[in-house]
Amino acid sequence: MQTGTVKEIEKRGNDAVKRLRESKHSKGLPFMINSKNLPGNECYLEYPDGRIMLVTLKSPRDRDFTVIRELSSPEKNNIIKRFSVS
User: Fold this and answer.
1) Where are the beta strands (DSSP E) in the chain?
2) Are strands 52-56 and 31-33 parallel, antiparallel or unpaired?
3) Which pLDDT does position 74 carry in this prediction?
4) How far apart are CA 14 and CA 6, in angstroms?
């Protein structure tokens, strides 16, 4: 695959994720941010008001997240920068 094509596919994917984030937030819903640095049952939820929560599914059968904690401002800024979600 040519480099230009790979970059185009990557840009389309990033644009699709940004549209999904905007769509979720416009409906008042949180946007899930997955990270390889977290255990498989944990992720971040970014809420429309700007809060980011570290959450977990306590068991594979869980359908609701349990909040571990809200991220501090420096942590939140790091996540936003690292995942380019703004």
Assistant:
1) 31-33, 42-46, 52-56, 66-70
2) unpaired
3) 97
4) 12
Per-residue pLDDT reduced to its tens digit, 18-75: 999 999 999 999 999 999 999 999 999 999 999 999 999 988 888 899 999 999 999 9
**Strands 66-70 vs 52-56: parallel, antiparallel or unpaired:** antiparallel
1 has pLDDT over 60:
no
What is the four-CA torsion angle of 51, 54, 59, 61, rounded to 10 degrees? 30
> Token pair of 11, please?
């840009």
Residue 31: what are its φ and ψ, rounded to 5°? -110, 130
CA-based nearest residue to 21, from 47, 54, 51: 47
SS3 61: coil
Whether residue 78 contacts residue 66, with contact meaning beta carbons closer than 8 Å, is answered with: no
